[in-house]
């Protein structure tokens, strides 16, 4: 996927997340059933994971690929940091 395609997909995903958050807010305000609220919250979390994947793909294509040419150690260090953060959030 090209960088501009990744950016467009990320922006669309952000708009979807905004709508989901607004929906979640309304559900809470209107006293909807708790499991329905949880379902909406889980959908938002999955959308955020999808956004994370797009951002990571962009980072790999733009920055990491260049770093492997010029500063391989920095690229490896960054990737390990991202991996560790991801593991903490599982």
Using only CA atoms, what is the Rg?
Answer: 17 Å
Which residues form runs of ≥5 with pLDDT under 50?
Answer: none
Number of domains: 1
SSE string:
HHH
CATH class: Mainly Alpha
Largest sheet: none
Distance linking N and C termini: 27 Å
How many DSSP E strands? 0
What is the name of the CATH topology? Methane Monooxygenase Hydroxylase, Chain G, domain 1
CATH architecture: Up-down Bundle
What percent of the residues sit in helical stretches (DSSP H or I)? over 70%
On the 0 to 100 scale, the average pLDDT is: 92
| Separate helix tally | 3
Describe the global form: elongated
CATH superfamily: Metal-sensitive repressor, helix protomer
Helix-and-strand structural type: mainly alpha
Name the beta content range.
Answer: under 5%
Notable features of this structure?
mainly alpha, Methane Monooxygenase Hydroxylase, Chain G, domain 1, 90% helix
């Amino acid at each position: 996927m090209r960088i501009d395609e990744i950016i467009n997909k990320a922006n669309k995903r952000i708009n979807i997340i905004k709508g989901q958050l607004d929906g979640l807010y309304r559900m809470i305000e209107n006293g909807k059933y708790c499991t329905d609220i949880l379902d909406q919250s889980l959908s938002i979390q999955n959308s955020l994971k999808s956004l994370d994947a797009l951002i990571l793909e962009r980072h790999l294509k733009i920055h990491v690929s260049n770093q492997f040419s010029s500063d391989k150690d920095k690229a490896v260090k960054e990737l390990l940091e991202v991996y560790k953060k991801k593991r903490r959030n599982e």
